Amino acid sequence: MAKTHHWDVFCRVVDNYGDIGICWRLSQQLVHEHGLQVRLFIDDIVAARHLISTLNLNQTSQMVNGVEICPWPNVSVTPAQVVIATFGCELPETYSQQLAAHQSVWINLEYLSAEPWVSDFHAQISPQPMLGVNKHFFFPGFFPDTGGLLRERHLLATRDAFLGSADKQAAFWNRLGLDHSILDSAIKISLFCYPQANIRNLFAALASIEQTIHVVMPFNGDVSQWSTAFADCTQIKTDASRLLLQQDKLNVHLLPFLSQADYDHLLWACDFNFVRGEDSWIRAIWAGKPFVWQPYWQADAVHLKKMQAFLAAYAEYASVEMQDLLSRASLDWSSGDPDLYSMTNPDKTLWQSLINQLPALRGYAQHRANTLAQQSDLATKLVIFSENLRNSQV
Ligand code: TRH
User: Fold this and answer.
1) pLDDT of residue 4
2) Helices 302-314 and 320-334 sit at what angle, rounded to 10 degrees?
3) How far is the CA of 15 from the centre of ligand 1 (A)?
4) Which of 167, 302, 323, 340 has the greatest CB tally within 10 Å of its CB?
5) Does domain 6-150+376-392 have CATH number 3.30.700?
6) Quick one: which of 302, 274, 241, 298 has its CA closest to 117?
7) Ligand 1 center to residue 97 CA distance, Å?
8) Is the CB of 295 inside a 6 Å radius of any atom of ligand 1?
9) For ligand 1, is residue 19 a contact (CB within 6 Å)?
């Protein structure tokens, strides 16, 4: 059967940026690497514009980088051959009622998890007798029997070309308004986290370390949400959208939110990265630099179970000492409300150990990026999965 050319991707923005971040990245990859025609239906165009900066809020449907961006359909829209409902979003009723008549393949793209049960649930079928179709579950994952990880075809080569060029890295830092001659000799850390992260303890620990450290923190919104975290820093306003925080030898640069491409460059250029949620987590893996991931908070410490499952998978080949260091750092970072942390004795040794171990941690991160990149990427697996489903419908 001819390749299915028309795909519809549905994105309901829950909060933050990951829903649209992943849908936008996937949609572009389906167009540019798999030659598909993709409509990306988004329910919150304003939120989407944080990541798709050229979106025209006054337009309804519009083409952006080969993807047709459409508002959430409130009238009957004819379903495409393949329909991707992301993160369990409900399809519009007028749309789902037409799926059977158009023999559309309906796939639910789920959230990423390293938990073992994912392999059992991946590719499972959920019959929808009222609609006369089946819904198919597609779980991203770290193991060959899952849906894989989002990764553009040339990502690692582009990363290596950037890391191989001091000029490209200098130009990047200068474009961010940071003096590369200062950064070149310093330890560079990127910070993207939820306000619940144990930032005060981290900054206190980094400020007490002998080496010069620069933290780069792209952010959107009101800096007051970070007041607890920044309580021990001197704030120097550099301009309307930037802030420099200093604490002893530590410098923290708050910058406007970057484009996804620039954010990748930041992850590549830094020596250590703090990431969160889902998409930046995956991007940190491909950066091949050491990182700590802060999962999206969930009740009953479910997010800590997800974190431990990830560490078990990711650090499987690391030394016991490295596994212990990554586990302690991840737990310190994601364990909850920093106001409960006693600031009388921040755990400086933990972060000092991590800084001391950067060369070994980097070698391991490069190794894991390369081994995980040997698996097929998520978009490719999704295309093959949908083709097999359509062929089985004949
Ligand atoms: O923003 P997030 O916390 O999104 C979260 C997660 O997706 C989580 O799984 C979901 O349950 C929750 O939303 C509702 O983190 P995430 O997934 O890393 O998405 C951030 C996106 O923003 C990602 O595509 C990277 C991008 N980004 C930039 O483009 N520029 C930047 O400067 C930064 C810091 C991030």
Assistant:
1) 60
2) 160
3) 9
4) 323
5) no
6) 302
7) 32
8) no
9) yes
